[in-house]
Design brief:
This protein is α+β, with helices and mostly antiparallel strands. The protein has 8 helices and 12 strands. Strands 7-6-5-4-8 form a 5-stranded antiparallel sheet.
């Protein structure tokens, strides 16, 4: 019998199902799991052939079945789970990220069925734990989940926000007041786009770095959102990450990465907004250097201007200080 590989998500649901029920008819299990008999038997064969590293007796997922051949068995049970004994669940952070991304399609019936979407969002809120936050809870006791609710609501209803934002690049936290425009999701993270009242400029904020989110009343007029020099297509910029900065690959998802024989890395940075690219290179100059000599010279010049401001302000000229120019 030719068997195709079964998706991991299916395998992870089969084991706890059988573990909680003991011996089950294959036809009944297939119906409950939303599979055909053939798909379920393929999953059981694959599970029976895998286990923990070492693959010695007692390490493999083990099955018991009612005939000599699994393909003909009417009853099957999992006798050893190798630790996969509970259904896989979303973490609260994963649920919030998914919920935030899907909420973008609320009130857009031309894109997705609204009834199904609202049911799914309710399920995700339960998974995230936000349904357990009392409506009368004080603002200072708000959880990250309730913060996410305030952000989503503000975008839909046109309300300004005040929040504490932590910058990973400078390891500092500042209070921001923002007129939000929209939410986007990329690389498993959600982002708020809007106008920062402090600078009067459009900014992008990672929602998991926002805390203490408060409603600040009606949103101000936003004006047009800047695009990439009038063009919205994705652009790529070549750069180099030294071998000593390879850790940064865990912090930022480059478009492509190629390792040189000496250990340095040739990377490509994907971007839409040229101004964002300059800020990114300035903020991470210790680990990312643009391959374009003219761009590298521009970044160095901007950094020098920033350092000069620190020096003129009384900071030691030789001190390890830096500034980011926009």
């Amino acid at each position: 019998m030719t068997r195709r590989s079964v998706p991991l998500a299916t395998l992870l649901s089969v084991v706890p199902y059988f573990h909680s029920r003991g011996a089950v008819r294959v036809s009944d299990a297939a119906r409950d799991l939303g599979l055909t008999d053939r798909q379920l038997r393929a999953a059981l064969w694959q599970l029976w052939s895998c286990g923990l590293p070492g693959y010695g007796p007692g390490d493999l997922i083990d099955l018991g079945f009612s005939s000599e051949d699994l393909d003909d068995a009417e009853l099957v049970e999992v006798t050893f789970t190798a630790g996969i004994d509970r259904p896989v669940r979303l973490t609260a952070a994963e649920a919030v990220t998914l919920e935030t991304g899907l909420a973008v399609f609320l009130d857009r019936p031309e894109v997705v069925d609204q009834t199904a979407l609202r049911d799914l969002l309710a399920t995700l809120r339960t998974a995230a734990g936000s349904e357990t936050v009392p409506a009368e809870a004080a603002p200072d006791s708000a959880s990250p989940d309730s913060d996410a609710d305030v952000v989503r609501t503000s975008v839909r209803t046109g309300r300004a926000l005040r929040f504490v934002y932590h910058s990973a690049s400078s390891d500092t936290s500042t209070i921001r007041v923002v007129d939000p425009a929209r939410i986007s999701v990329a690389d498993g993270r959600s982002y708020l786009h809007g106008v920062d009242r402090g600078s009067g400029q459009w900014r992008t904020f990672r929602t998991d770095r926002m805390s203490g989110v408060e409603d600040m009343g009606p949103r101000r007029a936003l004006g047009p959102e800047p695009s990439d020099d009038g063009e919205g297509e994705l652009r790529l910029e070549k750069a180099v990450v030294p071998a000593t900065g390879a850790w940064f690959l865990d912090e930022f998802a480059f478009h492509s990465v190629e390792r040189r024989p000496d250990g340095d890395l040739d990377v490509e940075i994907a971007y839409h907004d040229r101004a964002w690219l300059r800020r990114f290179l300035l903020g991470h100059a210790d680990v990312v250097t643009p391959a374009d000599p003219e761009l590298a010279e521009e970044i160095a010049g901007r950094a020098a201007v920033g350092l000069a401001v620190y020096t003129e302000g009384g900071a030691p000229a030789g001190g390890e200080q830096s500034a980011t120019a926009t």
